[in-house]
Design brief:
InterPro entries: BaiN-like, BaiN-like_dom_sf, FAD/NAD-bd_sf, RsdA/BaiN/AoA(So)-like_dom, RsdA/BaiN/AoA(So)_Rossmann. With 406 residues, the protein is α+β, with helices and mostly antiparallel strands. 29% of the residues lie in helices and 24% in strands.
Length: 406
């Protein structure tokens, strides 16, 4: 008689675990409380799904923020090439974009999910949607799952329920409760890859303004703690976007050190070249007011803020601007200042930092060291990484090990 395997959570980790276990001839049931699989996957990459990263697999470790050594077996057992090959074998075409990010050629996350659905069907996985697990108990070395539908007994169990970020997608922290109930320790849960609030009240005037090719820096006690070139966006409360989300992972240890942020709006120009550029713009707009003379240099929304920060009169005529005033303008462009206030709530984070302690999981199999037959995969484990497809790769790789060994 076949062993009955249950995987709880049909996100990327649970899907891979279920499909791989099914490919081994196991009797696999995949339980998902949402009405469809991959609900969080559907919104990743702004709805395009950043599947993984095309970097050499050894480079992935440099982008893991916590417990990277735990992932050694996972990453090398099921690599970024493996997930791409798997999805392509079910009809998905992919492409590589800036930062080595891999996306579906169609730019539709729904096409990734369709490929995963085919993968589950091909490997005879029983999929139970709209099924919420209410409790998990162990009796006679069997796992008793009580759902909103019924009570079922399984021989082995994989918990792949995700973290607490984006609760609307089903990541509400259920897995932590199940894991603790089965004797596991949960490390401190906090948001990871999360937008940032700033103290400046005028930030709301910049809401919706997106910046490309800028450099964001963070300082604590006058020491630089983060610097990254890329894209970001202003919100009504502060800042978000790729370089901001990555920065958030570096700031926690300096939370009480008075963090100061700075944006170089023109990183391609050093002070001399920027000053030359400003002088050229001034010559072309010699008789205009300051507020009307910077359209070619800065986004419209930024001009009034830059002049305010530079302590410059927006009504002053360009030909009356002194060298000292011009250099104030230059400095505000090269060091646009913001004051860190705090992180946005975990509900707005891309991933959760913290989870089931890696000390209690066998890194070669994903099996619990405390409960035989219990496995974990994906975001529920205390590992997280930077943006760029690395967190999804963690899900696939740990899911693969769980599915291979359950």
């Amino acid at each position: 008689m076949k062993e009955k395997i249950c995987i709880v959570g049909a996100g990327p980790a649970g899907i891979i675990a279920a499909g791989i276990a099914g490919s081994r001839g196991k009797d696999v049931t995949l339980i998902e409380k949402n009405e469809r699989i991959g609900k969080k996957l559907f919104i990743t990459g702004k709805g395009r799904c950043n599947i993984t990263n095309n970097a050499p697999i050894e480079d992935f470790f440099d982008n893991v923020m916590k417990n990277k050594n735990f992932l050694y077996s996972s990453f090398y057992s099921f690599t970024n090439r493996d997930i791409v090959n798997l999805l392509e074998s079910y009809g998905l075409e992919t492409k590589v974009e800036r930062g080595n990010r891999i996306f579906p050629l169609s730019d539709k996350s729904s096409d990734v999910i369709k490929a995963f659905q085919k993968f589950l069907v091909a490997n005879n996985v029983k999929l139970l949607l709209d099924t919420k697990v209410n409790s998990i108990d162990i009796k006679n070395e069997k796992f008793i799952l009580r759902t909103n539908r019924d009570e079922t007994i399984f021989d082995k169990l994989v918990i792949a329920t995700g973290g607490k970020s984006y609760p609307a997608t089903g990541s509400t922290g259920d897995g932590y409760i199940f894991a603790e109930g089965l004797g596991h320790s949960i490390t401190k849960i906090r948001p990871s890859l999360v937008p940032v609030e700033v103290k400046e009240t005028w930030i709301k005037d910049l809401q919706g303004l997106s910046l490309k090719n800028v450099t964001l820096s963070a300082y604590a006690k006058k020491k630089i703690i983060y610097e990254e070139f890329g894209e970001m966006i202003f919100t009504h409360y502060g800042i978000s976007g790729p370089i901001v989300l990555s920065m958030s992972n570096y700031l926690y240890r300096y939370i009480n050190d008075g963090i100061r942020l700075s944006i170089d709006l023109k990183p391609a120009l050093d002070d001399k070249k920027l000053d030359d550029r400003i002088l050229r713009d001034f010559e072309l707009n010699n008789n205009k007011k300051m507020k009307n003379a910077l359209d070619d240099l800065l986004p419209q929304k930024l001009i009034s803020i830059i002049l305010f920060l530079s302590d410059l009169d927006p009504e002053k005529i360009i030909n009356q601007i002194t060298k000292e005033e011009r250099l104030k303008l230059l400095n505000s462009i090269k060091e646009f200042p913001l004051t860190f206030k705090f992180f946005r709530p975990i509900e707005e984070a891309i991933v959760t930092s913290g989870g089931v302690s890696t000390k209690e999981i066998n890194p070669s199999t994903m099996e619990s060291k405390k409960v035989p037959g219990l496995y974990f995969a994906g975001e529920i484990i205390d590992v997280d990484a930077l943006t760029g497809g690395y967190n999804l790769q963690i899900a696939y790789s740990t899911g693969y090990l769980a599915g291979s060994n359950v």
